[in-house]
Structure formats: structure tokens, C-alpha cells
UniProtKB/TrEMBL annotation:
Organism: Nocardioides pinisoli
PANTHER family associated with the record: INTEGRAL MEMBRANE TRANSPORT PROTEIN, SLR0610 PROTEIN-RELATED
Keywords: Membrane, Transmembrane, Transmembrane helix
UniProt feature coiled coil, ranges: none
Record protein name field: ABC-2 family transporter protein
Taxonomic classification: Bacteria, Bacillati, Actinomycetota, Actinomycetes, Propionibacteriales
A Pfam family per the record: ABC2_membrane_6
UniProt-listed InterPro entries: ABC-2_transporter-like
Transmembrane region(s): 31-56, 68-88, 148-175, 205-227, 239-258
Length: 270
């Protein structure tokens, strides 16, 4: 029964998203230019890293291709989450304009509608750029079956962690109606932090990114295993395999916050 309900919700999501994709393709030139522009702009981040390594042999013991693995995996996880459910960060706008009230009257779960609303594939530029960097970095990994499994689970779990952060921190807008930048500090900000070796930060920061905002599980711990490295901060080796658990717990916490936010919502009155 639960599986059938989940499949129905997923189908509803794709139907709503497809409507927005068809609308975007009414202007194909604009769509392509936006996607290319998005990819080029985000690509400048890695160009900056490349230029930095032109003057450095390593960054706290990590070489360019090792940092590229961190950068690509974090960017890929964020891009997947942002493409799939990035619209949830507009919840404050939906509340102020009364659009959320309209969504509540429809026979589709509210979260499904909010996540699929204004779905756009122009973010594929960011997704493609991240995939290219990650693919290049993967050529330097000494692959084994277990490392392949860890890499796949890292990408899936990383996306799940960012799903949870997008939903959870966007829910603050149920109480404040405008806190988009607050949520962005933890989603996009979290992705930016994990694009670099976390041992460049004080150990207290790593502890916070492990137990408070668990973005360290997006790529840092599993990448240590992929690269055959021990944790410079001395964290338990088991953390290198704990990304799936972190993803599930983050998403579960986000859904609880979402349910609380929806119960708190009392309509705009308009």
C-alpha cells in the first residue's frame, strides 16, 4: 500500500514537472542559452581551483585531482537536489501570494506540488559541469567493486542530504515568510564548504558538519575511502560508509519539520 502511494506521488511529481518542461521548450533558444550560461558560470568555480593549484602543489595534502573529486561529488549532489526540488525554497513567496492556499485545495500532496512547481531543466548546465569534473577525477581512483558501491551510494546519499537541507531549512519560512537566504546558507553554503578538503578548517568545524549539519557525509568521508586515505581529524573509519544513514536521517528530520510547518500554517486570509 505504501509503495503504491509513493509511486502515485512520484507520478504526480513527474506530470507537474513535465508541464513546466513543455512550457520552457516553447522558447528553445532561451532555454539552451540559459542552460549553457548556468553551466559556464558554475564552471568558473573549478577554473578558480585550477588557477589556485597553478601556484600550489597541494592543499593541506590534497592534490588537484583529489580536490576535483570532492568538488565534483559535492556539486553533483547539490545539482541533483536543486534540479529536482529547488523550487521548495520559494515557499515564502507562495505563502505571501496565497499560492500555497491554492495548492492545498488540490488532490496532490503539498510537498510534491511545491517541489515540482516551476521545474526547470536549465539547471542541467550545473549538473553537466559537475558530472564532467567528477568523471575526470574518477580516472585517478584505484577502483575496486566496494569503491564503486561507495561512490554510487555517496552520490545518492549526498543528494538525499541536500534534499533534506532544502526542505528542512525552507520550512523556516512557514514562521518567518521570508528566510530564503537563511536556507541558502546551509544548502549552497554547505556545498561550497564540502568542495574543499575539510581538514583546512578547525576540527570544531568538522564536528559541526558531521553531527549538526551533516554535509561532511555528502562527500568528505566516502571520498577518503575512495582515495585510500585515513581521516586527518581522527574520526571513526565507520563514518566513511555512513553516508546512506546520514541521508535517511536528514530527510526524515526534514519531513518532520515540514509536517510541523504545514500544521502551523494558517493561510494568508486572502
Amino acid at each position: 500500500m505504501a509503495e503504491a502511494g509513493a509511486a502515485l506521488h512520484l507520478r504526480s511529481y513527474f506530470q507537474i514537472a513535465w508541464l513546466w518542461i513543455r512550457a520552457a521548450w516553447q522558447y528553445p533558444t532561451s532555454f539552451v542559452l540559459l542552460a549553457l550560461g548556468n553551466g559556464l558560470i558554475t564552471g568558473l568555480d573549478f577554473v578558480g581551483l585550477w588557477i589556485m593549484f597553478a601556484h600550489l602543489d597541494d592543499l593541506k595534502g590534497f592534490t588537484l585531482h583529489e580536490v576535483a573529486l570532492l568538488y565534483g561529488s559535492a556539486s553533483l549532489a547539490l545539482a541533483v537536489a536543486d534540479t529536482a526540488i529547488g523550487s521548495v525554497e520559494r515557499i515564502g513567496t507562495y505563502i505571501r501570494t496565497g499560492r500555497l492556499d491554492q495548492m492545498l485545495t488540490k488532490p496532490v500532496p503539498l510537498l510534491v506540488q511545491v517541489c515540482a512547481d516551476q521545474f526547470t531543466l536549465r539547471r542541467l548546465g550545473r549538473l553537466t559541469q559537475a558530472a564532467v569534473v567528477f568523471g575526470w577525477a574518477c580516472t585517478y581512483v584505484d577502483w575496486t567493486p566496494l569503491r564503486v558501491l561507495v561512490a554510487v551510494s555517496m552520490l545518492l546519499s549526498g543528494g538525499l542530504v541536500f534534499f533534506g537541507l532544502f526542505v528542512g531549512f525552507s520550512c523556516v519560512q512557514f514562521w518567518t515568510t521570508d528566510a530564503t537566504e537563511f536556507a541558502n546558507a546551509f544548502t549552497y553554503g554547505g556545498a561550497t564548504v564540502t568542495q574543499y578538503p575539510l581538514n583546512i578548517f578547525p576540527r570544531e568545524v568538522l564536528v559541526g558538519l558531521t553531527f549538526v549539519i551533516p554535509v561532511a557525509f555528502v562527500n568528505w568521508y566516502p571520498c577518503l575511502y575512495l582515495l585510500g586515505r585515513s581521516d586527518p581529524a581522527g574520526m571513526p573509519e565507520a563514518f566513511q560508509f555512513a553516508s546512506p544513514l546520514a541521508g535517511v536521517l536528514t530527510m526524515a528530520a526534514a519531513l518532520l519539520v515540514w509536517r510541523s510547518g504545514v500544521r502551523h500554517y494558517t493561510s494568508t486570509g486572502s
